[in-house]
Amino acid sequence: xxxxxxxxxxxxxxxxxxxxxxxxxxxxxxxxxxxxxxxxxxxxxxxxxxxxxxxxxxxxxxxxxxxxxxxxxxxxxxxxxxxxxxxxxxxxxxxxxxxxxxxxxxxxxxxxxxxxxxxxxxxxxxxxxxxxxxxxxxxxxxxxxxxxxxxxxxxxxxxxxxxxxxxxxxxxxxxxxxxxxxxxxxxxxxxxxxxxxxxxxxxxxxxxxxxxxxxxxxxxxxxxxxxxxxxxxxxxxxxxxxxxxxxxxxxxxxxxxxxxxxxxxxxxxxxxxxxxxxxxxxxxxxxxxxxxxxxxxxxxxxxxxxxxxxxxxxxxxxxxxxxxxxxxxxxxxxxxxxxxxxxxxxxxxxxxxxxxxxxxxxxxxxxxxxxxxxxx
Length: 376
Description:
three-stranded antiparallel β-sheet, disordered N terminus
């Protein structure tokens, strides 16, 4: 063992203190702290993983619902479109059926009006002033075939029912009507910034082509003509009173009526063959107020149509305008009439014009002028 010499110098040296981390207890505390932090981090990581998992699941669910909603929306959209297409097709078919039905109704009404007009005309033609005396006659003429029956011409008067929102125009020249029909659509100005669009269509009428009438003398009726001008009620009373008495050859009167636009009266008796004696005498003096007047009594002919043939004809100078809307403009007919008078619009001079506004029922009367022309 070596010993230091006595003359060596000594000094106090302080050893540095060790930190708490380097001690066993400090290390244990640090490990515990780290463990707590690690546990917290693991717990937070677990919570974060669960949140991410829930978020992914929610995202997938939302995506699935979005896809399902999109698919359902697409199906609803397609179904709605199919329903709209089906409804549009049904509406189109209904519109066509309605148009066809209206056209059929118009044609039937026109035919019915035509038949009524023809019947009225034929009825008036049968009210002839004729005498059928009972005499022995000798036929010295010649016979002919049934096809050689004498023919006669009729003047047609046709009542044409107009649909509301239409107008009829009769031009002086056929070429103008043809030109208007060829143009079809026409824009009619009602003012500076207002106009309407109308469509020109041909007018078709049903005319009788052949009429065969069987006539016979009515045993109960007489036709009285050559009547004085006086109050109609007084006139009918005096005639019934005169021909009621048996001393004048009359009898019980069942009915007394005036034939329109003929100036004649028809008396109907209850018994047959009274009219025969009155028509044989022909002229009768009837006592009227203030004077005695001579009237003429002739047989009344009953006419029956046994054969009727009709034909469809197009008016060469008359045009039907359709599609006229309801417009608050009192001068609408004037604007339409002026429009079709101008040559710049394809029109010309008008002979007649008739307008049937919406909400009103109007009828036009056609009278034949010659075989090639008609008059409104």
